[in-house]
Amino acid sequence: MNVVAGLSVAGLMLPEAVAYAGIAGFTPGRAILAALAGGVAYAVLGRSRFAIVGPTSSSAAILAAALATLPGSPADRGAMATVMVAIVGALFALIALFRLGSLSAFIARPVLRGFAFGLAINIIIRQVPHLLGLKVASSSTLALLAEIASNLGRTNIASITIGVVALALLLGLRATTRLPAALIALMLGVAASRMIDLTALGVASVGPIDFTLSAWTLPDFSFARWSRLAQLAAPLTLILFAESWGTVRTVALRHGDTLSANREFGAFAGANLLSALVQGMPVGAGFSGASANEAAGATNRLAAITALVALATAALLAGPTIEALPEPLLAAVVIAALTHALSPAPLTRLFMIDRDQWIALAAACGVILFGVLDGMLIAVALSIGALLNRLAHPVVSELGSLDGGHDFVDRARHPEARAVAGMAIFRPNAPLFFANAEQSLGTIVTKVLARTGDTDVVLSLEESDDLDSTALEAIAEFEKMLEAKGLSLHLARAHDRVRDVLVVAGFDRLADGASFSVADAVHAVRAGKGNDHVQPA
Fold first, then answer.
1. What letter would DSSP give residue 332?
2. d(CA 379, CA 361)
3. Per-residue model confidence as pLDDT tens digits over 296-343
4. Sign for the pseudo-dihedral over CA of 166, 168, 173, 174
5. 3-state class of 67 per DSSP?
6. Cα 374 vs. chain centroid, distance in angstroms?
7. What is the pTM of this model?
8. What is the C-alpha to C-alpha distance for residues 151 and 149, in angstroms, rounded to an integer?
9. Nearest to 112 by CA among 367, 309, 352, 310
């Protein structure tokens, strides 16, 4: 099964390498070498059983845009690309060395699901011009769609025919057999190119594949040029960080696999450093490759290793044959591999549970409209913003006793819970900190003043494992306001760190009187007043 999956993936890696080399402005040989070097390094260092490491469309586009800002000959351009790949590897190594993989925790699961959906659509859109036989120059998705629409009259019928037939064949084989559909499609494409003069019909082909390596020497660049290359490598690293972690984490979640972010980033470091040694391109875990590997039934990394062996064999023994492959066929292979990722089920489930659906949609739309990096950053910013909004505006619950026992619950959710006579018991349902302390305690004051007959207020701090200086001052002011109204404040569910900081801040009475449970606080108040009554809700 893994061998068959690997052969299927090899049939995808080849056309992707050709396509992404074209995006970056290099020969296919450079992308193929990058895929081989990156794949070998990841096979040794990485842990995802589905990851296929190689050039990606986003990194290729950013590499092309970065090099376009730098003057120089074609040889200089190749040297600068190699240096940028090496810097990307070094930056990933620093991320792993300083254990900054925890930054990936800010990419929430809904963001990953939206990212995966949007990225699949993004890559498919970028293959449409090849399917239609169009030459386009736009880089952004909207501009690309506009350019395609304005050039529909120039589409090539032969290209469309090849692409549509290939796509139907790929999807049909995948649905009905376990055969390596991509490899079969490529073999049929080779046969068709030998029997028919596709070039005469206006169908673009892969073209020459060059595996020639120049002597590896340290480029004689000025300090300003080195500095500029380092600056340009930073966004390239960010996009590979987002795309690669998003990919491996997404497929891992679907199968219950556990991955170490720091280990994965160390593997991406090795992959890019080895790619630089063979003068390749930036590499990461591509979403289409991982999706194809998953869909083909891979169960371990043998599938990826098989794909590398098949790709190397094809590159060494079938170079002239690869050069004649029609571009629409390669586009169809990429599109077919991504149809697996177009299922809306992960997004519709979020709507069903009414949680984080807009964040997932923002991630999908952001990736489609603004590109991988900007789309991911927008979605991460929205998810952090949503978190801060929830923390800054917590629900404050009034608690009551269940059957006069030890359990105290939200009276709004549990009508059977009864209030304790002479006491108002409240719980902020989020940690108290500078953004919400004054508002939360102010809400409690308003509710307390609207009541009559209370002499004591119990504040449950179970959600707060610590207090910052703003929260401390707000609690002190809260106590003074209650005292001015003839009410006493008692703290319940106070953590040890909260008690410690209260003592250090000089609020010894609050710390000494704090209880470990609401029931203990209520009992302490009753004991002090000789009152042991619970009033009906």
1. H
2. 9
3. 888 999 999 999 999 998 888 777 777 778 889 888 888 887 787 788
4. positive
5. helix
6. 12
7. 0.70
8. 5
9. 367
